[in-house]
Amino acid sequence: MFSSRIDTINLDKLPFASSSSSQQKHASKPQTITLEWNSDGTRLAYSKNDKSVRIVKFEHGRFNATQPMIIEEAHDKPVGSINWDPKLTSRFVTVARDSTVHCWDVHGHTVKLVREFQANGEHSVNFMVKYSKDGSHLAVGSIDGKITIFNTQQEFQFEELITLQLQDQLFEFDWNKASDCILCSLGRGVVEIYRLDSERPSIYLLQSLQLTASDITSLRYAKNDKLFAVGTKDSQVQVVDAQELVTVKSFENYCDQPVGTVDVFPLPKSTSSAGLKRDDPEATLDDSSVSGVLLAITYEYGSPAVVYSTDQDPVKDEPLLKIEECQRSEFLAIARFNPKNYRVIAYNDSQGDSKILYPGTNGIKNGESREPVRERRNGGKEDERRSGRDRDLNRERQRERERRRDRDGDRDRGRRSIHPYDRDVKRPRLN
């Protein structure tokens, strides 16, 4: 599925216009907190703990990084969440654990702040922001369990519609494709689904799912609207059918660590994991019929990021791809598929740098040296003996996990994880 030759670009080595002054302000090397692609995969924005946000542009079908730009102080605090407007590939919003939301517009070689507004109250601490899939609404989440929804149908206008107050700790939320439902991952293994009626306006609980006993710390809705994936504190990744609302597959044998983040990419029907052509240059989301979904999974501690397919056997099969560099640094490891090409993945490494992984070519542009990434393919003769050992190890880990669960019961129920985008700040437990 993935090319046998894989190259990487270290984005932090690009000639950002003001990066030198930013380095001088920060005593140590700035670390990547979060990163996100725009809707057509031509721009990537990522934040650093020196309060900066950096934007890199890529040519369609090629990964020559151009127009590197930097916002020196995007907020008064480091930016913890970035999201691009799906209607306009040059516009994005940011929040930074304060009460304000900033809207930015990229034009040519410049980026400027076009709107600044408050969400969830004057003293709120907002940690997540997301546009609906059609760009008609914007949701802003705070650490006290509030989600405020804004109407964004008029350019540069953010009209507050309604505020949802959750009764449990909010870890992450996402929109469905129709942009009329919000899924919220909460503590104690619960996902709540809310229906939005923007005409009245009103919002009400549609369904509450008890998927596990552990906190669900990450959630991602597939763009085809057929399923969503959740990651838990007890190392599970569950794939849930969005229509039947039942778990159709669970990945929990790879390592015994809390899941950090999950990303999903629906595969076009002609590129299922069983019959993918290796010379196929790209896989896009233009085909609505899909036969499987790719999962990019990161973990909270020392384990590298991995890519699985929902076509795989979660017990017997190894990951399709292992990104050895994508491990936690000061902040949580994140891996995001390019929305137009599943072979291109943006991630942060254990040194805090932001990188792009893409299929191997004759060399890497921008003067970067090639950084090989280990690839593991099912059925490969060279991995046969190692695969057997890894399967035995996975089974032993599973048995040990089951023994521990039997012994300890649900002792995790009252615990609270640190938010995925800022591991240094613990959020208060709600009553």
From TrEMBL:
Report one GO cellular component: THO complex part of transcription export complex
Stated family: Belongs to the THOC3 family.
Keywords, ordered alphabetically = Repeat, WD repeat
State what protein this is by name.
Answer: DEKNAAC103100
WD repeats by residue range: 72-106
Question: Region annotation Disordered: residue ranges?
Answer: 352-431
Biased segments, Basic and acidic residues type = 367-431
SUPFAM superfamilies for this protein: WD40 repeat-like
Q: Which SMART domains match?
A: WD40
**Would you say which domain of life the source belongs to?**
Eukaryota
Swiss-Prot/TrEMBL GO biological process terms: mRNA export from nucleus
| Key word Repeat present | yes
